[in-house]
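May I ask for a protein sequence together with how it folds?
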Amino acid sequence: MEQIDVHPPHVLIFPLPAQGHVNYIEARFHKYPGFNFITISDFLPEHYLRSGYSVLDMFNSMELGAKPVFRQIVIEMRPPVSCIIRDGVAGFVLDVALELQIPTVRFRTVSGCCFWTYYSVPDVIEAGQLPIQGEEDMDRIITKVPGMETFLRCRDLPSFCRVNDAQDPNLQIITKETRKSSQAEALILNTFEDLEGPILSEIRKQCPKIYAIGPLHELLKTKTQASYQSSNSLRQVDRTCITWLNTQPSQSVLYISFGSITMITKDQLMEFWHGIVSSKKRFLWVIRPDSLTDMEEIPEQFQEGPKENGYVVKWAPQEEVLAHKAIGGFLTHSGWNSTLESIVAGVPMICWPFFADQQVNSRFVSEVWKLGLDMKDVCDRRIVEKMVNDLLVDRREVFVKSAARMAELARKSVAEGGSSSSNLNHLIQDIRKMCMKSQDN
C-alpha cells in the first residue's frame, strides 16, 4: 500500500512572464484545488514593449525589483514552501531559496543542446574562440562544446554570443546563471532522451541529476487528457484559421509563425511575402500587430482573413494547427516550444531563428536531426522560394520520413513506461524525499 505523506510537499513553481516560459493556465487546474496562482509585477511600465530584445529588460528589471516581493510571498505562504521549482534564468529566486534554506529544482525552458552550449561558453572564451571577429568569422567551427565539435559554427551559437566583447553583460548573466545549475538539487529539461541523448550525457557530467520530461505539452495531454481547446495563449486566438484549414488538401499548407517575441523589419517581411507568393504554395501566416520593428504599420497584404493562396491571422492555436492534416511544413523562428510542437506533429521545418536559444535549435534541426532546413542570417525572396519548394516538394520525402520517425519517438517517450513519463515519476518521488528531508531538518 502506498504511503501517504502526513505533510504533503508544498511546491512553489516560478516561471518568467513570457509565453515560452508559461505553458499552463489556471483553467486547466480547476479540478485540482491544491493549485494556487499568485502574480507579481515584472517592474516595467504598463505599456512597455515586451517583444524582441526588450524582453531582456523585463528579466533585468525583475532581478532588481522582485527579490524582496518574492521573499515576502514565500515567507508568508501557508503551509510553508518545502520546494521551489524555478525558471533557469531567475537568479533572485535562487538567492531567496538559499537564504531561507528551501531546496530548489531548476527548470530550463531551452533545449538541452542550448543549455549545454551556454554552459560551455566560459570554456569557449578561455580557448580564444570568442568573441566573434566580424561577419567573415561566422562560419568558423567552435570546437569547445563537447558533443558539437564538428558542426557548431559561430553563427550557431546563442545570439548573446554575437558580441565583440566577452565581458558583455547579457552574455555574462546568461552563462553565470547556467553555471549555477549545479547549486540546485536537480535540473528539469523539456526534452526527451531519444532526441537529445548524446547531449544529455554531456550535461550529466556536470549536473548529474537531470529529469528530461518533454515534450511537456504532449506529456500534459497524456496525463490529463487536456484538449487543444484548453489554450494557454497570452494572446487572443483566431480560430477561423482552423475552418479555413479544413477546406485545404492534405499536407498542402505552409504554416508561418515567428512566435510571441520575434521582431522583423518591414523589408524582411516583404522578402518573405514575395518568396512565399512566388512558391505558389498555400500558406497560413501569423502576423502579430507588434511584430514589426519601430512599430511600423503592417502592410496591406497582411490584413486578416483569406488571401489568394492563403490565410492571415494575428495569432493561431498553434498545437492544433500543426496537428491539422492540411499542414505540410512550418516556417518557424525555432523557439523551443515551437520546435517540440512541430516534432510531435511530425511536421518538417524551415528555421529562421531570431535570438537566444533559437540559433542552436535551428542548427540541430537541420544538421543533427535532419528535420528541415536552416535559413539563419538570410532573408532573400529567392532563397525563401527555393526552401519552401524543397520542404514541400523536391526534398519532401526525406524530411517527412525523419519527422515521422521522431514524432513516434516523442509520443513513446510520454506514454506509460516511456523515458519522459518515467522521469516525471522519478521527479515526483524525489521531490517528496527532498521535502521530507527538509522537514526533518
